[in-house]
Amino acid sequence: MDSQPETTARRHQRIIMFPVPFQGHINPMFQLANLLYSKGFSITILHTNFNAPKTSNYPHFTFKSILDNGHENERFSQSSLADFAQNFLFKQDAAEAFRDELELLLASVQDEQVSCLITDALWHFTQSVADSLNLPRLVLRTGSLYSTIVYSSIPLLDDRGYFKLDDSHLEEQVSEFPLLKVKDVKKIGIKSSKDPLAQLLGDMMKQIKASSGIIWNSFKELEETELERVPDDFPIPRFLITFPKYFTASSSSLLEQDQTIFPWLDQQPTKSVVYISFGSLSQVEEKEFLEIAHGLVYSKQTFLWVVRPEFVKGSTWVELLPDGFPGERGRVVEWAPQQEVLAHEATGAFWTHSGWNSTLESVCEGVPMICSSVLADQALNARYMSDVSRVAVYLENGLQREEIASAIRRIMVDEEGKEIRERARVLKQIADVSAMKGGSSNKSMESLIDYISSL
Ligand code: UDX
Hints:
- By secondary structure, the protein is α/β, with parallel strands linked by helices.
- It has two domains: 4-251 and 438-454, 3-Layer(aba) Sandwich (Rossmann fold); 256-432, Glycogen Phosphorylase B (Rossmann fold, 3-Layer(aba) Sandwich), CATH 3.40.50.2000.
- The protein has helices at 4-10, 23-38, 81-89, 94-108, 126-132, 145-152, 154-159, 182-186, 196-209, 224-233, 261-266, 286-299, 338-343, 356-365, 378-388, 401-412, 415-435, 440-454, and strands at residues 13-18, 42-47, 62-65, 113-120, 137-141, 173-174, 177-181, 214-217, 238-241, 273-277, 302-306, 330-333, 347-352, 369-371, 392-394.
- Strand 13, helix 14 and strand 14 (369-371) form a beta-alpha-beta unit.
- Helix 12 crosses helix 16 (401-412) and helix 17 (415-435) packs parallel to helix 18 (440-454).
- The protein is globular and about 65 Å long.
- The protein binds uridine-5'-diphosphate-xylopyranose (UDX).
């Protein structure tokens, strides 16, 4: 624990932080900001008006909107990464505009030292700006170590022709990453290393390597093998901290979280409820949506299903659901306080799209998973949870009602599920220890604090 004078002294050290404006990126950046604030640093958050954070939840931070002139709180409700990249990352003058803003900000800070800039790894162009202003830049990588390593091998995977293989090869193993099948790599969503997304990830990797350090929302024991590999790929200071163990992601939620579910959850038997959520961006086709609904009914388990508005392509909300659904057994809500739901004793399993935050939140609460994957790093996370950590069943062949029901029952009812649940419980304990004094995550946090203090 820090002594009070040490914490107080650090109030004169300010950290400027810049999240990417999507829920899965905002949450870990705010968890990190809370952590650094709790250690005494003063915090300034730079943000776009698009998906602007709820500043009222953070009276202890300073906020500054930059880069776009959109209306406050404008949400591109179904904005894809490509739209975002178009609007912000590929804009010719983005670096210049960022430099102007940052320079003004640095000039306005008095009686304080700005220690560093921490940006999401995707804001790659901020590295040259930070360099030109002699400001150290650290990056927050919101995905796992494993997915970062796979992403850094995209040019290699492209050279070997994986992205161009046709569907007859989907079940084949990727020899460079024996854990993965061709279909996992193809799900990243890249057709060749000339794709704008591939180029964006390439720029991100290059500027991570040029940065003063990288922070992952993870912990050593979860990704031990990857940690041994990572020094070759990222020869910079590296920190692995399990954010959900210190601060919940709920305070930075962009959507209103439905709190009315708790009296209902309180009435359910221990570990009897399947919680389902596909994160903040993923969408499904109408047919897939109905398969999910039927699969839930077929499973005969109690469920709490988050159906985000516009989750179903071409639909507003749940108007496609059959009459009488969800019936006695289920509840459907627009958005939930996810971490708190996972921590609730009635929750028995989490059917997730395998976004990294959701995955780690589930690991931290010891909840076994049914993993789906839609895009980006999700198939990599799903594969890792099912085959390495072995705390999940991977629903790897799309969404069909019988397979859905069978995967749910494997976790909730079958003997196999007991073993998976037990491994999830043990992994939670390891995560708990890691966050305690002397544990790996805690030590990594302490060394991050020392490192930033020394900059
Ligand atoms: C995406 C990627 O999928 C992810 O892998 C990447 O690292 C970051 O961006 P997203 O698809 O939204 O994010 O998923 P995820 O990373 O799981 O983040 C979703 C967040 O929203 C979680 O922190 C979760 O707690 C929160 N959430 C989700 C809610 O607060 N309520 C809900 O009902 C559902």
